[in-house]
C-alpha cells in the first residue's frame, strides 16, 4: 500500500525538528532523527490539528474552557475533580470521522511496511510545548505500550489527548504560565520495540555538568522502570572522546517492566522470576553495548548541536539498538538560595542515609514522609519530602519542599528531573530513607555528596563566601565561551543581536553576540497572541496576553541568560494594531500612522493604558516568576520628557521600577530626543538609537517611500544623521549612561559601523546574519584605533 496523502498524519521521514507546532517535541525529534539515519522504530504522528479539530468540531472546547475557568489551583482536590471531568469528556466524545479514517489508514500502511498484521505499537503523546529546553514536563503526558488493533489504537489516541488534562499537566501549565488552550497535543504511533534492556542517556554528565562525559542508565526490560523510578538502574559515566568507561555502578535491579502476557499494555514483574536471581546484580550491558550506546549519543548530540537526554532500547530478538526519544537537556536553574552556607564542623556528623546526588545543593528542613498522593497536603513550605518515589502528582508538593529524598530511582527519574527543574537538592536511590528518617526530624540534605545528616549541619555565616558552592547545572559557561571564542575575537564594543521571533533563538543562540539589543515584541503579538490587547482587556482576558508574551520573552531570555534581552514594548502603528483580532473595534484610523499614535504616546493614554499595563505585567512575570532578570525594557518612539515621566510612573506602579537589575532604555528616534539628549540621558539607563526612524525624522523622509528611497534620500550616513548620533553618544556618556544602536544601518554599511566605533558607541545591535562579521569588523576597527592612538595618528 502506498503511503498516499493524509490530512492528519505525518510520517517520521516527512518531519524535521522545526515541526514542533505540528507534531510536538517528541514527534519532531523522531522525524529529525529518522532523517539523520538514527535507528528510530518506524511510525507516524497524528498531527496536533487532529486534536484541535477533535475539540472544536465536537464543540467540547467551550465546555473545557468553562470548567477550566472554575478551577481553584490552590486546592488539589478541586483541581483533580475538574480535570477528571475534562478527561472523561474527551474519552466519551467520538473522534471526527475524517480524523479516524486517516489514523486507521496510516496504521494499515505501517502494518504493511513492517510486514505484520495488526502490529503492536507504542502510542505516545507529544505536546507542542513539551520537551522545550526550558520546561521539562517529565512524565507528563501518557505513553501506552504494546497497543494492538484498530479499536485499541483509537482508544489510546483519545487517552493521549485526554492526558493533556491530568491534574499535574494542568497544574504545570498553570505555574509555568502556558495558555492551556494553545498547548496542543500530537500523538506518536510507533512500532513497538520488545526490549530486553533499555535506559536513558545524557550526553553530558547532568550531575557535574561536565560536557566531556556521557551518562548512561540501564535496566532490564522496558525503560519505563527507570523513568518511573521503580528500579535503581546501573549507571555508567563514559569519556565522551575515547568512549572509555570512567565509572560504573551496578545496582540491585529487582523489578522490570515487560509486555503484558495477555492483551496489550505492560506489567511490572520480579527480575528473578523472569531472568533468574543472578540477573539482579549482574550488569545488564556489556562493555561493547555501553560504547555503542554512547557513540550513538554523540551522533545525536551532533545532529542537534546541544546536549541530549535520550531514551534507548535494545531489541530482544535482534539485539539492535533503537532510539526511542531524544530531547534537549533541560536548562536547569541555579539554586534559589544565595545565602552563604557553611557546614558546622564543630561536631561529628551522623550520616543517616546515602544515595545518588541527583540535583545538587544543600538544604536543612524537617522530614515529611509521603506514602501516597493523599498525603501531599502534609508538605509545608521548607519541608524535606521523603518518599519511596515521587510521581508527577507530587509536583505541587515538590515545589514547596526544600529538598527531596527517595528510596528508589536513578539520576534520570522523575524526582531527579523535577527537582532540577525547580532547583531543589535531591537525593535518590537511598533504598531506606522512608525507613530511617522519621517524620518531623530535622536533617541536612547534602545533595552534592548524596548524604543525609542528622540535625542542622549548616551555619549561616553572613558575609562569608560559601565553602560549598552549588554547581550550576546545564551546559557550562566554559563550553559556551569556547564556542564563542572559536567564532569571534573579543571586542570592547558589545555586539548585540536583533531578534523578534522567540522561536529562532535556538537557531542563533551560539552566535557570538553579547545580548539581544532589540527584541521587537510585535512578533509575539502577531504570532503568539493574535488579538488586540485592548480587545482582550474588554473581554477580561488580559491574562492571555500576559502569559503568551511572557512565554515568548522568557524563551529568549532563558536561552541566552545571563546576557541581556532588551525588550521593546509594542511599537505597532495604528494601521498595524488594527490588523490584530478585534483591532477594528478598538483601534482608530489615522492619516499618518507613522507619526501618529505610537510608542509612549499610546501607553500613557486612557485608550491604551490598560493594554500597556498587560505588557508590563508580562515583563514583570518574566523577571519575577521565571527569575529572568536579564530581561530589560525599552521604550520606543519617545518624543518628550513629560511623557517619559508619565510612562515611568505607570511602569513603576506595575513593578517595573528602574534600578537594580532592571535597566530602562529609550529609543532615540525623534529629533527632539537628540536636541534634549542630556536631559533624556539623566532619566534613563541607556539610549538606543533607532536609526531607521531617526533618519526618517531628521531628514523628513518617509522610510517607507519607494520614491525617496530610490532617489537616495533615505540615508543613515547623511551628515545630519551622523551629527545626531554623535550628540546622543556624547550626552549618554556625559551622564554615565550607555548608548547603543538598533536600527538597520550598522548591519548594512561597514563604514557606518566603523563610524560608530570611532565615536565610542557602547554597543550595536545587528541582524543575526551579520553578527559574526560585525564582531570581526569591530575588532579590527578597535585595534586600528589603539594603534592610531599609540602612534599619535588620528
Ligand atoms: C528604528 O527605528 O531604527 C528601529 C529599530 O525601530 P523600527 O525599525 O522597529 O521602527
Ligand atoms: Mg523605530
Beta-strand share of residues: 15-25%
CATH secondary-structure class of the largest domain? Alpha Beta
> What is the level-2 CATH architecture name of the largest domain?
Alpha-Beta Barrel
Shape: globular
Bound molecules: phosphoenolpyruvate, magnesium ion
The count of domains is 4
Largest beta-sheet details: 8 strands, mixed
Name the CATH superfamily classification of the largest domain. Answer: Phosphoenolpyruvate-binding domains
> Average pLDDT value?
85
CATH topology label of the largest domain: TIM Barrel
Using the CA coordinates, give the radius of gyration: 29 Å
Beta strands, count? 31
- Kindly report the oligomeric state of this protein: single chain
Organism: Acetomicrobium hydrogeniformans ATCC BAA-1850
Enzyme class: transferase
Cofactor: Mg(2+)
Family: Belongs to the PEP-utilizing enzyme family.
Note down, in words, how this protein is organized.
By secondary structure, the protein is α/β, with parallel strands linked by helices. It has four domains: 9-191, 2-Layer Sandwich (Dna Ligase, domain 1), CATH 3.30.1490.20; 195-328, ATP-grasp fold, B domain (D-amino Acid Aminotransferase, Chain A, domain 1, 2-Layer Sandwich), CATH 3.30.470; 342-469, Glucose Oxidase, domain 1; 488-790, TIM Barrel (Alpha-Beta Barrel), CATH 3.20.20.60. It has 31 helices and 31 strands. The strands form six sheets. Strands 15-22-21-17-18-19-20-16 form an eight-stranded mixed beta sheet. A hairpin with a 5-residue loop joins strand 12 (308-315) and strand 13. The protein starts with 8 loop residues before the first strand and ends with a helix. Bound molecules: phosphoenolpyruvate and magnesium ion. Phosphoenolpyruvate binds at residues 518, 520, 571, 669, 690-693, 742-743. Residues 518, 520, 571, 669, 690-693, 742-743 line the site of phosphoenolpyruvate. Its EC number is 2.7.9.2. Pathway: Carbohydrate biosynthesis; gluconeogenesis.
Amino acid at each position: 500500500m502506498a503511503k498516499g496523502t493524509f490530512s492528519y498524519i505525518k510520517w517520521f521521514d516527512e518531519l524535521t525538528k522545526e515541526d514542533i507546532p505540528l507534531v510536538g517535541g517528541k514527534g519532531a525529534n523522531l522525524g529529525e532523527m529518522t532523517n539523520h539515519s538514527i535507528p528510530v522504530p518506524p511510525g507516524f504522528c497524528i498531527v496536533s490539528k487532529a486534536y484541535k479539530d477533535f475539540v472544536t468540531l465536537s464543540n467540547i472546547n467551550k465546555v473545557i474552557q468553562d470548567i477550566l475557568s472554575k478551577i481553584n489551583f490552590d486546592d488539589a482536590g478541586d483541581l483533580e475533580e475538574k480535570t477528571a471531568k475534562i478527561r472523561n469528556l474527551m474519552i466519551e466524545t467520538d473522534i471526527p470521522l475524517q480524523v479516524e479514517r486517516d489514523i486507521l489508514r496510516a496504521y494499515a500502511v505501517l502494518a504493511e511496511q513492517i510486514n505484520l498484521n495488526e502490529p503492536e505499537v507504542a502510542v505516545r503523546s507529544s505536546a507542542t510545548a513539551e520537551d522545550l529546553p526550558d520546561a521539562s514536563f517529565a512524565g507528563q503526558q501518557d505513553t501506552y505500550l504494546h497497543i494492538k488493533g484498530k479499536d485499541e489504537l483509537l482508544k489510546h489516541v483519545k487517552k493521549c489527548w485526554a492526558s493533556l488534562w491530568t491534574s499535574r499537566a494542568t497544574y504545570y501549565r498553570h505555574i509555568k504560565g502556558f495558555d492551556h488552550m494553545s498547548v496542543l497535543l500530537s500523538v506518536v504511533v510507533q512500532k513497538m520495540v520488545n526490549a530486553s534492556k533499555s535506559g536513558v542517556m545524557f550526553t553530558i554528565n547532568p550531575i557535574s555538568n561536565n560536557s566531556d562525559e556521557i551518562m548512561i542508565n540501564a535496566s532490564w526490560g522496558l525503560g519505563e522502570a527507570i523513568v518511573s523510578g521503580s528500579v535503581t538502574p546501573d549507571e555508567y559515566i563514559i569519556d565522551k572522546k575515547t568512549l572509555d568507561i570512567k565509572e560504573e555502578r551496578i545496582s540491585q535491579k529487582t523489578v522490570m517492566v515487560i509486555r503484558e502476557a495477555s492483551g496489550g499494555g505492560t506489567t511490572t514483574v520480579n527480575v528473578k522470576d523472569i531472568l533468574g536471581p543472578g540477573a539482579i546484580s549482574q550488569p545488564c550491558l556489556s562493555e561493547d553495548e555501553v560504547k555503542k550506546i554512547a557513540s550513538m549519543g554523540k551522533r545525536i548530540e551532533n545532529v542537534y548541536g546541544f546536549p541530549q537526554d535520550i531514551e534507548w532500547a535494545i531489541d530482544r530478538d535482534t539485539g539492535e539498538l533503537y532510539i526511542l526519544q531524544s530531547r534537549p537537556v533541560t536548562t536547569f536553574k541555579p539554586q534559589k538560595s544565595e545565602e552563604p552556607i557553611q557546614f558546622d564542623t564543630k561536631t561529628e556528623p551522623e550520616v543517616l542515609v546515602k544515595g545518588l546526588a541527583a540535583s545538587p545543593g544543600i538544604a536543612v528542613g524537617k522530614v515529611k514522609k509521603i506514602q501516597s498522593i493523599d498525603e501531599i497536603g502534609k508538605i509545608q513550605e521548607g519541608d524535606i519530602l521523603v518518599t519511596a518515589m515521587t510521581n508527577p502528582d507530587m509536583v505541587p508538593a515538590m515545589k514547596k519542599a526544600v529538598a527531596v529524598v527517595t528510596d528508589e530511582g536513578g539520576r534520570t527519574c522523575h524526582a531527579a528531573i523535577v527537582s532540577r527543574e525547580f532547583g531543589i537538592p535531591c537525593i535518590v536511590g537511598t533504598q531506606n530513607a522512608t525507613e530511617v528518617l522519621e517524620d518531623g526530624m530535622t536533617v541536612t540534605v547534602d545533595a552534592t555528596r548524596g548524604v543525609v545528616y542528622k540535625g542542622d549541619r549548616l551555619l549561616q555565616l553572613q558575609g562569608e563566601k560559601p565553602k560549598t558552592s552549588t554547581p550550576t547545572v546545564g551546559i557550562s559557561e566554559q563550553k559556551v565561551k569556547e564556542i564563542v571564542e572559536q567564532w569571534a575575537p573579543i571586542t570592547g564594543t558589545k555586539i548585540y543581536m536583533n531578534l523578534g521571533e522567540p522561536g529562532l533563538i535556538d537557531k542563533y543562540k551560539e552566535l557570538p553576540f553579547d545580548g539581544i539589543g532589540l527584541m521587537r515584541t510585535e512578533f509575539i503579538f502577531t504570532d503568539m497572541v493574535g488579538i488586540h490587547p485592548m480587545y482582550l482587556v474588554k473581554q477580561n482576558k488580559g491574562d492571555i496576553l500576559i502569559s503568551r508574551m511572557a512565554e515568548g520573552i522568557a524563551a529568549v531570555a532563558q536561552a541566552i541568560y545571563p546576557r541581556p534581552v532588551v525588550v521593546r514594548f509594542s511599537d505597532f502603528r495604528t494601521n498595524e494594531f488594527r490588523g490584530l483580532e478585534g483591532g477594528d473595534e478598538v483601534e482608530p484610523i489615522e492619516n499618518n500612522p507613522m507619526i501618529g499614535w505610537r510608542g509612549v504616546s499610546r501607553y500613557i493614554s486612557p485608550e491604551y493604558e490598560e493594554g500597556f499595563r498587560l505588557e508590563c505585567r508580562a515583563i514583570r512575570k518574566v523577571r519575577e516568576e521565571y527569575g529572568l532578570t536579564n530581561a530589560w525594557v525599552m521604550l520606543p518612539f519617545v518624543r518628550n520628557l513629560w511623557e517619559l515621566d508619565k510612562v515611568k510612573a505607570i511602569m513603576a506602579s506595575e513593578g517595573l521600577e528602574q534600578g537594580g537589575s532592571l535597566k530602562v532604555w529609550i529609543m532615540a528616534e525623534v529629533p527632539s530626543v537628540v536636541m534634549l539628549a542630556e536631559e533624556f540621558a539623566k532619566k534613563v539607563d541607556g539610549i538606543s538609537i533607532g536609526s531607521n526612524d531617526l533618519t526618517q525624522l531628521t531628514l523628513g523622509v518617509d522610510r517607507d517611500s519607494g520614491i525617496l528611497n530610490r532617489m537616495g534620500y533615505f540615508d543613515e550616513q547623511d551628515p545630519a544623521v551622523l551629527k545626531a548620533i554623535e550628540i546622543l553618544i556624547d550626552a549618554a556618556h556625559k551622564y554615565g549612561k550607555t548608548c547603543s544602536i538598533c536600527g538597520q544601518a550598522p548591519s548594512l554599511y561597514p563604514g557606518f559601523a566603523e563610524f560608530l566605533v570611532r565615536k565610542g558607541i557602547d554597543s550595536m545591535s545587528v541582524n543575526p546574519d551579520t553578527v559574526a562579521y560585525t564582531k570581526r569588523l569591530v575588532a579590527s576597527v578597535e585595534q586600528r584605533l589603539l594603534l592610531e592612538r599609540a602612534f599619535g595618528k588620528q
